[in-house]
Task: structure prediction
Amino acid sequence: MALNTSTLTSTSAGSLRRLPGPDVVRAIALIGVVVMNYHGYLIIKGGERSGGWANDLFDPWTGPLSSRFAATFVLVAGVSVTLLTRKAVRNGGDDITEMRWRLARRGALLYAGGLFLDTIWAGTIIPFYGAMFALAALLFTFRSRWIVLVGVFAVAAGALLKVWEFQQLQAGKSPGWVFVPTEGAPESFLLDVFVNGTHPLLPWLGFFCVGMLLGRVLDTSWWRLAALGGGVMLFAGASIASGFASTDFQQTVLSTNPGSRGLVYVASTLGTALIAFAAIDMIANRFEDQTDPLRRAGQMTLTLYLAHIFLFNFIVDWVGLVEPAGLATSLLFSLGFWIVAIAAANAWHRRFGRGPAERIYRAIGG
Result:
């Protein structure tokens, strides 16, 4: 889930204008996240997982769409952080210090709130967002080449850890405390964020760093072409590489499955995220009036993300209105949620402006 950080950029007149693209991308990505989350939640509760091409496509853990919507959210979050901090970087001094504290507070709030939310909705991305925002408090003043190095390190470290785990298991050894930390121990929280969680920073911080870099070139005329071209090359290259996997080791290293967390997986997922961001941004700017409902919803993604969790948890677990079932039920409820959510977000925005969760988030986090 990409938070509603400010997506403002300077206009030629020196004023600030909120870019429509990131908000629309955020809203569309959240639609996909809702589908995958609802389908996965019902499967965990005993619903059907297999049976036909559609179930394979939407499989939340191994399907070709798995984690791609979430990765696009992380990319947009990186873009938004750059746009949010641009003025502070330009002014320097106290503005940078204040911005560091703001991002650190927001990161801490998201991490703590995410740990609580995880007790209701296991595997939520919120704690990982918190960790990324906390790191962004340091990263946003780095030169682009250093952000590239941080991203490359995160991706490479994640891939090497999975290779090491594979080798340990093949040798009949335990991967040790890195992958099996003592539950409840202080280091277990750190290892969950960086290594063992559903969206570990090794390698997911790489998506965030690319988003930060992308945010720095949004005022150029060439960025969309570069993002589209780079995205196609990454996705095509990853698809070709994965086709050569035959041995167990090669399937680990060359897999596009999210569980592999390898270089090929990151390239494939980053490629689709870049393509989606550039294409949707172009449409959002060309058809601003037509995409305005999505833009408004995209400004309230924290509220809508929390709403989709609490609503489904209530109707499935509390009152039993929905029995664990297959993909059709997930798609039906996802569609219903988004018809209501987009309408509600636009009505709320016209009357009150910022969403309720966003108001609390900014009041506490700055």
Residues 155 and 266 are 7 Å apart (CA to CA). The longest strand covers residues 8-10.
